[in-house]
Design a protein that fits this description.
Length: 291
């Protein structure tokens, strides 16, 4: 290690020893759930990345990432998409009043119940997004659905992709609110509108949920859904075997099987070549056969 880099590391270590965690459990504890962790240093000559020789220009890497935000020499802020507070007092103030976010959640749950009752997701939910909102979910190892702006959310996320699911139910059973960052996580179930022969529900196993970012004016600015895709496919196979899968869902599955794109579905990275896929398949085959 060069002397300049060693000096930077020592300087950073001194700062860390003397800092206090605002909204967390201090140096010896874990940050409390629902708090923005902002670490103030008494003195800071260079950033952590500068000290370790990995410096990049200050500023957020992504609107949706959790990258450290550098730039203000008085603090390091772990960012989750909201505007970085400039003062210690601002850091202690919530992004939005908790009661306002609670009211947003109640309106959202009521709109979901209305959508389930009438079988129209666009009418009740479309207006609950800002004009420039983003809505996404993962569709496999190298596929992500992304709708950018309210129009695409209505046309694609609540329209095309919900065809065949008009009568499905998505009851929420857990809500977590973080007013410091203006974010909400809702855990829900996915229940088909038909019953098994024994009278029980066809339901996707595992957890499903949505991560929201509040945008003010009782509208979401960002939403990311998460669920177990493997369990969804398994339930579709059960419904298909019992002759209870809706025709629009069958048509979507056929399009996906033939490599046809659904609107808003984008690759996460370049597709693997045939040779790379074959290499992976052979490697797994060796593991299965010989351990």
């Amino acid at each position: 290690i060069s002397s300049s880099r060693l000096t930077g590391m020592i300087s950073l270590a001194k700062d860390v020893i003397q800092m206090s965690a605002i909204g967390g459990g201090g140096l010896s504890g874990k940050p409390r759930l629902g708090k923005t962790v902002i670490i103030y240093a008494r003195r800071r000559t260079r950033s952590h990345s500068e000290a370790f020789g990995t410096h990049q220009p200050a500023g957020p890497k992504s609107r949706h990432g959790s990258a450290p935000i550098l730039g203000d020499p008085r603090k390091l802020v772990y960012h989750s998409g909201h505007r970085v507070p400039l003062t210690k007092r601002e850091a202690l103030m919530p992004a939005y009043p908790r009661k306002e976010i609670e009211e947003m959640v109640e309106r959202w749950l009521a709109a979901n119940r209305d959508s389930e009752r009438v079988g129209d997701w666009v009418k009740s939910l479309g207006r609950m997004y800002t004009e420039d909102a983003e809505y996404s979910w993962n569709m496999g190892p190298n596929r992500e659905f992304i709708a950018r702006g309210r129009q695409q959310i209505e046309d694609w996320a609540l329209g095309t992709h919900m065809e065949g699911f008009e009568k499905w139910r998505y009851p929420y059973y857990k809500i977590i609110i973080d007013e410091q960052q203006g974010e909400v996580i809702g855990i829900w179930r996915q229940v088909a509108p038909v019953k098994r022969d024994d009278g029980t529900d066809y339901e996707v196993s595992g957890l499903g949920g949505s991560w929201f970012r509040y945008g003010g004016n009782y509208q979401w600015a960002w939403q990311k859904d998460f669920f177990d895709l493997g369990n969804v496919k398994d339930l579709f196979m059960q419904l298909a075997a019992d002759g209870k899968l809706e025709r629009p869902v069958k048509q979507k599955l056929r399009r996906l099987a033939w490599g046809l794109k659904l609107p808003g579905v984008e690759p996460i990275h370049a597709d693997l070549s045939f040779g790379q896929k074959l290499k992976g398949l052979l490697a797994m085959l060796r593991i299965v056969l010989f351990g």
